[in-house]
Predict the structure.
Amino acid sequence: MAIQRTFSIIKPDATKRNLTGKIAAKFEEAGLRIVASKRIQLTLAQAQAFYGVHAERPFFGELCEFMISEPIVVQVLEGEDAIAKNREVMGATNPADAADGTIRKEFALSIGENSVHGSDAPETAAEEIAFFFSGLELVG
Ligand code: CMP
């Protein structure tokens, strides 16, 4: 598997509890390099656009309100098989199903307040990185 880039969000429940460093350490310990990182606060329109694929889901409103409730940290992670590796480090979407040692098992509060987001495929990784970062912000 080649070197890939993936997109990550450290969500409001985690930034609020000062878990940014602990979560970043999990990525680095897994061999993922943080090649871009910034702390931002989303507007409602930005959250709705980012999660547009979920617009018809019953939890869409709650999800967008949560994502604008506190600052988030958006990051680009790089490494061997980065998309799958990041999903492994994050653990299952619902922390009740997440494996021991994963970010969601250790830190997530619920399926909604689940501490991190990560891209699920190469196409979405490229789209999500481009949504938040310009080429100039992406160092090697
Ligand atoms: P994420 O990887 O950011 O992608 C979509 C998010 O929707 C997901 O993580 C969850 O946080 C959230 N989500 C999924 N299912 C539910 C649910 N049943 N209730 C609330 N939020 C959910």
The first strand starts at residue 3 and ends at 10. Residues 122-132 form the longest helix (11 residues).
